[in-house]
Request: fold
Amino acid sequence: MEFYGHIIDGQEVPSLDGATMDDIDPYTREPWATIALGGKIDADRAVQAARRAFDEGPWPRMGYEKRQALMHRLADLMEEHAQELAMADTRDMGKPITQALHDVARSVWNVRFFADHARMSMTDAYPMDSGHHAYSRWEPAGVVAAISPWNFPLMLGTWKVMPALAWGNTVVWKPAEDTPVSATIVGRLAIEAGFPPGVLNVVHGYGPDSAGAALTENPDVDRITFTGESGTGKVISGVAARNLTPVSLELGGKGANLVFDDADIDNAVHWAVEAIFRNAGQVCLAGSRLYVQRGIYDEFVKRYKEAAEALVMGDPKDPATQFSAALASEEHYNKVSGYLGTEALGGGRVLTGGLGEGWSVRPTILLDVPQDARVVKEEIFGPVTVATVFDTEEEAIAMANDTRYGLNAMVFTENLSRAHRVAARLKAGTVWVNCFFIRDLRAPFGGVGDSGVGREGGNFSREFFTEPKAVVMQIEQ
Ligand code: NAI
Ligand code: MG
Reply:
């Protein structure tokens, strides 16, 4: 089995105490790689390397153009290694290889977009009546700790790491313990691309009492960007507050998908399937609550069921597989399958789906579920959707907003006024109308309520990863 180490100070290294962990492929349920298992001492070493690289190294000082060129070189190498990167995520968490390849393309775009965005970014100038002139500067914040989850290992990692780098910060990236490999590969490629030592560090390990917690406690860390569970976000926020370290938290969701009578049904069914069955519903943005207006409800549910049952389920390494016969880990399988028990359903019934072979859950649609059932209230993070009928727009909005989350929502309607009206009233960081998953990396991304704190993307990432400075100059005596 290949060994994947930490990337610290421009070198791939084992843990100081030599500890390792097995990396399990959830489809074969066998180890497929050996990973350096880091702890506080390794995380601290990575922060020291990043600190030195920021305080003394060339990265924050070389200017946008040189950084942009290095980042594009990294993006080129990631494209050359697309198959290796995609297979790493597929073996680490069971994602179908076609979707993993799509994630690689999006990850490459994360690198190129933020490299270009920083280079092209302008600053504000404020001519003052007093004869002064004020302007803002976007100065890098320092050392950034990026802690990422297992559901889009490469894509969500690069979404955090790349804007931080583009703005001149140095980074310590801790990928999720279940999905460590693609991060080490990116670290290797950054060395090959010619990144100065200490600019992009990768440290592996667990969260609590391990590498993750050590990063959040370290006073030499200037920013913490985290994507993961809402509960973890609350813990990290509390720890970070002790050092007054700013945090950006992208947390869980319970996306509502509203389909009105006047919707284009083919389009709405297509996206309702994507919204909960892509990546087996292990998506913070999943459309896990489906609300369909009464006039088309029966027809919609019939077609939705057919489309769910038509998904080709199988080995995630097989390019023909549309739906993986493995959730990300045994622990996660146990969590998701627990939601199919009587207590969580609260009297609802399974229209299609249920447990599959191994650690898999089939595309599952639940009907007749009361709105206070756990499957409606809690994030399942699996291929399980609850379909509910509604009559009026008011009723649909009220049910959609009855959640402690607020990451995203979808609206399907051909009525222009309704589209804008409902989009404005939904409690969500992103609303998609007649589509889903489409992202413009300049737009704000983040959530309301338990779905997070702060926004990333374009200028929003810039605000988080820099210390804006005002310079006021006298122009006229
Ligand atoms: P998790 O919260 O268990 O772990 C995420 C990362 O945090 C891992 O790298 C883990 O090692 C680390 N971690 C855990 N406890 C920590 C601690 N006390 N201190 C520092 N680091 C710690 O989340 P998981 O299970 O990996 O991912 C699934 C969750 O992520 C879901 O709840 C999902 O909704 C959420 N998510 C949110 C997204 C968003 O953008 N809003 C996107 C993707 C996932
Ligand atoms: Mg977890």
Observations:
- DSSP finds 16 helices and 23 strands in the chain.
